[in-house]
Automatic annotation (TrEMBL):
This is SET domain-containing protein. One of its GO terms (cellular component) is nucleus. It comes from the Eukaryota. It comes from Micromonas commoda (strain RCC299 / NOUM17 / CCMP2709) (Picoplanktonic green alga). PANTHER family: EG:BACR7C10.4 PROTEIN, HISTONE-LYSINE N-METHYLTRANSFERASE SMYD.
Length: 311
């Protein structure tokens, strides 16, 4: 889409508060299908274990060299020379320990690696708030990207306190606490924090994380069925988290070549309408959708589609 709708990433949307949902986004005017609303750089993002040595951990592109020290991360020259390289320096020893399976933990524990990344970013907050990689790279090439600072994380639900903070099941909180306990001793001492902060941070990452997908479809995949994009990692994009879920969403998300999330309208949208995206596969049945939303995002879906299918 071109023209005035591309001039400002927030030009077509405004924030609002919706009862029972909390913060939300609304359209400021009528929008056609395919209008780009937001492009947000990841505050934290890590590749899945199968992609660690294939994709650059900064820009999520298949380029760069694998770290000779940990053998568990790849960085291209551009990302390696910036904040992403500094972050890897803080994570390198921890990744080597995960590679060796210490204490039964492995590189497959993506939630643990995302927490390690968050704690590393926390320790170098000034650099990230000034515009870290890959956000700074994306911003330099296309000025419409939103770059969140670390403080934006603290405004997201953690699932620990209930109410507006969300309420994860007790067993989920217990699992988070165990992962947090392990993470506190994997990173350098400069990155460590209190157990309470570690638990709340991981809760925020889990409740607000987006599964990232490769821009190219898998071989033989049918894009007409809504699938075909290979999952490659998980990231947190605070400004995009204001977009609430619906099982009949009017928007969709994708990921560009810098690891940024792009939110676009999936149909014509009227001014004032709440903007929504799918948090789970909307092709699933009502019961399975609701179970996944309750387990992974700590809320019961009350969208119009769920209400209609219940009837």
């Amino acid at each position: 889409m071109t023209g005035e709708d591309d001039a400002d990433p927030w030009d077509a949307v405004t924030t609002d508060r919706v009862e029972g949902k909390g913060e939300a986004l609304r359209a400021t005017r009528d929008l056609p299908k395919g209008a780009r609303l937001l492009r947000v750089a990841p505050l934290f993002a890590v590749p899945y274990a199968a992609e660690l040595t294939r994709l650059c951990g900064g820009c999520f592109q298949p380029r760069g060299a694998v770290c000779a020290s940990c053998g568990s991360a790849r960085l291209c020259s551009r990302c390696g020379a910036g904040a992403a390289g500094t972050l890897h320096g803080l994570e390198c020893h921890a990744l080597a320990r995960l590679r060796d399976g210490e204490e039964g933990l492995t590189l497959a524990h993506s939630d643990l690696r995302l927490l390690l990344r968050a704690l590393a970013v926390r320790s170098m907050r000034r650099a990230v708030d000034a515009g870290g990689d890959p956000a700074a790279i994306a911003a330099a090439e296309d000025g419409d990207v939103i770059v969140d600072g670390y403080d934006a994380l603290e405004g997201l639900m953690s699932g620990v306190d209930g109410g507006d903070d969300g309420e994860l099941p007790h067993d989920a909180v217990a699992t988070i606490a165990e992962v947090a306990k392990q993470a506190r001793f994997l990173l350098a001492a400069s990155c460590r924090c209190s157990m309470d902060e570690c638990v709340r941070t991981l809760g925020r990452l889990q409740l607000n994380g987006f599964e990232m997908t490769a821009s190219e479809p898998e071989e033989g995949a049918d894009e007409a069925e809504g699938g075909g994009h290979r999952p490659v990692g998980v990231g947190v994009f605070p400004s995009a988290s204001y977009t609430n879920h619906s099982c009949a969403p009017n928007c969709a998300q994708r990921f560009d070549g810098h690891g940024c999330i792009v939110v676009e309208t999936a149909r014509d949208v009227r001014g004032g309408e709440e903007l929504t995206i799918p948090y789970v596969d909307v092709r699933l049945g009502r019961r399975e959708r609701r179970e996944r939303l309750r387990k992974n995002f700590a809320f019961d879906c009350a969208c119009e589609r769920c209400a209609a299918e219940a009837d």
